[in-house]
Amino acid sequence: TPLAQPDEPDLESKMNWGTFYAVISGVNRHSTGIGRIWLSVIFIFRILVLVVAAESVWGDEKSGFTCNTQQPGCNSVCYDQFFPISHIRLWALQLILVSTPALLVAMHVAHRRHVDKKALKRSGRGSPKELEHIKNQKFQITGALWWTYMISIIFRLIFEVAFLYVFYLIYPDFKMVRLVKCDSYPCPNTVDCFVSRPTEKTIFTVFMLTVSGVCVLLNLAEVAYLIARACKRCMSRPEDEAKAAWITQRLSSYRQNEINQLIADHSLKSKLTVTKKSPTEKGERCSAF
Amino acid sequence: MSWPALYAQLLGTNRHSTSLGKVWLSVLFIFRVMVLVVAAESVWGDEQSDFTCNTLQPGCENVCYDQFFPVSHIRLWSLQLVFVSTPTLLVSMYVSYRNHCDKRRILQVDGQEEELETLKKRRLPIAGALWWTYLCSLVFKMMFEGGFMYALYVVYDGFQMPRLVQCDQWPCPNLVDCFVSRPTEKTVFTVFMATASSICMVLNLAELAYLVAKALNRNKKRNIEHTINTQLSYCAVNLVNDQL
């Protein structure tokens, strides 16, 4: 078959990466500086390059794969043997899985906002201005949020490295060969099969692997940065201050529990009609308590 | 009408979901719809054009393809995703019905503008009839999810795509070998989508358990309150009688 024109990148798929971008970039507000750089690298050097360039290079990978035989089915079988899963699909899955841990952070922030809103409403200061302020509030990366952020970066690293390893297993050489020799049924003997655009594919493979490596380095740098910041915060605060901060935090949560308890009791007590309890035996009728 | 439009529609119902419901929606759209559109559709793109049979007999390829692939995986998954997303709209229909009733009531009583505004922005607690609607929507979701996975398993005899099928339908002259295009890649994606489907089912089950637990908790609290109230009012009545 003559080499067919590569398909135009699907507008639907562009739209969906766009929706994905909108969802993920919402996390940007709560990232560190390195996190924002990482996100830009992902979107510009990986997703954009994938959609705009790489998909057209691999577009005719099957139709342009020709074997030196007219035996029907030999093409399909040899293609399937040498390319169990296409580079493009691996990269798309890798990008989706690597970007998703950022949503853990977004979920944590949404949960915190929800809790703050409830607390504000309970204390009776639920004016629209204060609620708006909570919506736009930017949380410091400390405490539980620090741990969530750390876990999301570690997952990112794990997925990134796992996919690089899978790539290495399936395609041990980053170089795309020009010719493969195949003798699976129904090919009559060992036939030569020719891959379409091997050099261009090699260039893009090298590019994507390099950017992948850069992203891994950025993630490692972010981990180091977060740890350094946490240590600095621990050490720069004098010990008593740290203890005082810890005590204040415990007190405020204890106070909150007390307030909750009072509110619960108040809603019960308001249903009573008589409050005065006379001493002696008349009180004993209420001995249920 | 496309996937982003469906996403926008479902995002609107997010306000009245539990947190598990919100996680379910993200898993649905990122790991299933996105993967379907961005990756799976190009794998199955040439499924019929590249289905080759070892014969020159015209019509044999068409007939054999139709025999072994009655419904394509991609179409089954698209239908599954549409059916699974729709029960959430039950909940939003009920919420808008409630809002409509309350709006009418407020307008009758001659309420202010801001009351109507708070009505639009409020978040109904999941109790009473809304709880039942939500439960029904979860049950339907699980039924559709399980039904479609079972259908896929039955039609294709498992989740693996064979490399070679043998076909002897008329007009094929005898038993011919037919070769499927990209069987390994198709198997990988079938397993991936089946896994994502099971994860969604597990999330739905967890949400069901959470709703039931919340309802039982609420009942228990109400019973305790009721007991306390009756005891207190009994005490109070006795005290008043003694005073008189």
UniProtKB/TrEMBL annotation, chain A:
- A Pfam family the protein falls into: Connexin
Which keywords has UniProt assigned to this entry?
Cell junction, Cell membrane, Gap junction, Membrane, Transmembrane, Transmembrane helix
Where does the record place the Connexin N-terminal domain? 56-89
Q: Which domain of life is it from?
A: Eukaryota
Any one of the GO CC terms: connexin complex
Question: Where does this one sit in the cell?
Answer: Cell junction, Gap junction; Cell membrane
Matching entries from InterPro entries are given as: Connexin, Connexin_CCC, Connexin_CS, Connexin_N, Connexin_N_sf
UniProt-listed GO biological process terms: cell-cell signaling
Q: Domain (Connexin cysteine-rich): give its ranges.
A: 159-226
Q: Where are the transmembrane segments?
A: 37-54, 91-110, 144-171, 203-228
The primary location reported for this protein is: other
Lipid bilayer topology: Multi-pass membrane protein
GO molecular function terms listed in the Swiss-Prot or TrEMBL record: gap junction channel activity
Assembly information from the UniProt record: A connexon is composed of a hexamer of connexins.
Family membership noted in the UniProt record: Belongs to the connexin family.
Function description:
One gap junction consists of a cluster of closely packed pairs of transmembrane channels, the connexons, through which materials of low MW diffuse from one cell to a neighboring cell.
Question: What protein is this chain from?
Answer: Gap junction protein
Q: List the source organism.
A: Xiphophorus maculatus
UniProtKB/TrEMBL annotation, chain B:
| Cell membrane in keyword set | yes
Statement: the UniProt record of this protein carries the keyword Transmembrane helix: yes
Question: What does the annotation say about its assembly with partners?
Answer: A connexon is composed of a hexamer of connexins.
Q: What is this protein called?
A: Gap junction protein
The Connexin N-terminal domain, residue ranges: 42-75
Identify the GO cellular component terms for this protein: connexin complex
InterPro entries attached to this UniProt entry: Connexin, Connexin_CCC, Connexin_CS, Connexin_N, Connexin_N_sf
Cite the entry's keywords alphabetically: Cell junction, Cell membrane, Gap junction, Hearing, Membrane, Transmembrane, Transmembrane helix
Q: Which example biological process does GO assign this protein? A: sensory perception of sound
Q: What is its main location?
A: other
Residue ranges of domain Connexin cysteine-rich in the record: 144-211
Q: Which GO MF terms are attached to this record? A: gap junction channel activity
Regarding the membrane, this protein is recorded as:
Multi-pass membrane protein
Q: What does this protein do?
A: One gap junction consists of a cluster of closely packed pairs of transmembrane channels, the connexons, through which materials of low MW diffuse from one cell to a neighboring cell.
Positions of transmembrane segments = 21-40, 77-97, 129-156, 189-213
Q: Which family does it belong to?
A: Belongs to the connexin family.
* Compartment(s): Cell junction, Gap junction; Cell membrane
